[in-house]
Amino acid sequence: MIRTWGSVYAVICSLAVYTKRFYLTYHLRPKYAIDLANKQSNEIANKKLAIIIQGPLLLKDDFTYQTILVYKKIFKGAKIILSTWIGENEETIRKIEGLDVNVILNEYPITNGYGNVNLQLKSTKKGLELARDLDYEFSMKTRTDQRLYRQDLFQYFISLVNVFPLQKDNIQKKRLIVSSLKTCKYRLYSLSDMLMFGDTSDVLLYWSSEYYDEGNKPYFNSKNSEIPPIVNGTPIMTEIYLTLKYMETLGIKPTWTLHDWWKFCKDYFCVVDSNMIDQYWPKYKSLSEYWFIKDYSNNRARSLQFADWIQLYCTAPSSWDNNEKPEFYSYKNGKVIGWEQNQDTLFRGYFNPKKC
Q: Is the separation of the CB atoms in 81 and 101 below 8 Å?
C-alpha cells in the first residue's frame, strides 16, 4: 500500500507542474473491502437498519460484490437487500447470497421509462417492501454502482433525523436524508434519487409513485408532446419526476419557483454533502472529486449542499438568493437544450494546457 501511495504521489506531482493556475490534490479509496480498516464498535441494533442496493450488478472490479463486503464491515447488524434483475450474472449472485444477503431478482417492467426511472422505481420499491415486511425501522436506498465509505454513517443520519424533526404532523413521519450529488440548487424540484435514508415507511412512500408512462400525463398539453415534457423551463425527467409525484402524494401543488423548491427541501428533507458521507460513483467524471459539487470558475454552484440547506432551515426561503433564476430548458430540433449552460467550466479547463 505504501508503494502504491508513493508511486501515485510521484505521478500527481509531475501532473501538478502543468496545472500552474490551480492546486491539484488527489484522494485514494480502496477498491476492495480487505484494504478497508474499520471500527469494531459500530454495531447497529437488531431491526434498526435495512440497506437496499438496487440496480444491475456492476461487475468491473467486482464492484457491487465488494461494496456489499464493505457494508458488512461498516454497517454491522444491518440487513442488506440486493434488488436487481433476472438474468444478472449467476456466479456473482451466488457469491452475494453466500454473504447472508437477501437477493430479489425482479422481472423488468414493460417499459423502462425516461432515464430508466421505471426500473429504479420497481427495484427500489421491491427492496423497501421486503425491509418493511421484515420490520426494519430505518432504510437506506443506494445503488449497485455507488459506494459509501463513511463508517459512522448510520449514527450520523440518526443524529440528523433527531436534531431536525419535521415541523408539523403530516403524512411523512420523519425527515428524509438525501445526497448533494445531483440535488440541484437552481433546477426546480431536482432532488437526488441516488441515496435516501429515513423511516422505512417514508422512504417506501417516496418510491411508490406510478410508472413514468402514466404518471407524466398531467404534464402534457396540446402544444407539448415531447418526452420528457418541459413545464416552465423544467424537464419532467427521472429525479424531477419522482420529486413532483411525491409532492402530489403529500398534497402539495408546485408553483414552479425557486422559493417553492427550496421550501420543499427545507420542510421535508435534509441534504448532506456527498463528500461528508464519502460517496463514490465510478461514472462520468469520477476522477474529479468535486464534479457537480464545486466549480471555482462559477459562483452559481449547481449542487445544493448542506451549508445551503442549513441556511434554508434557519431562514425563510423567500428571503434567500432573491436575484437568482432557475435553470431553463427547452426543445430545439427535437432535443432538450440548456444542459450546456450549466456544465462545470473549470473541469473542461483541465484538458487544455493553455487554460491550466
A: yes
Nearest to residue 326, comparing CAs of 233, 242, 255?
Answer: 233
- Per-residue pLDDT, 256: 96
CATH for the 31-349 domain, from 1.20.120, 3.90.550, 2.40.30, 3.90.79 = 3.90.550
* The C-alpha cell that represents 303 in the structure block: 449542487
**Is pLDDT of 352 > 60?**
no
pTM of the predicted model, to two decimals? 0.91
Which amino acid belongs to residue 7? S
Map out the domains of the chain as residue ranges. Answer: 1-30, 31-349
Higher pLDDT residue, 338 or 284? 338
Q: 147-148 and 279-280: which strand pairing?
A: antiparallel
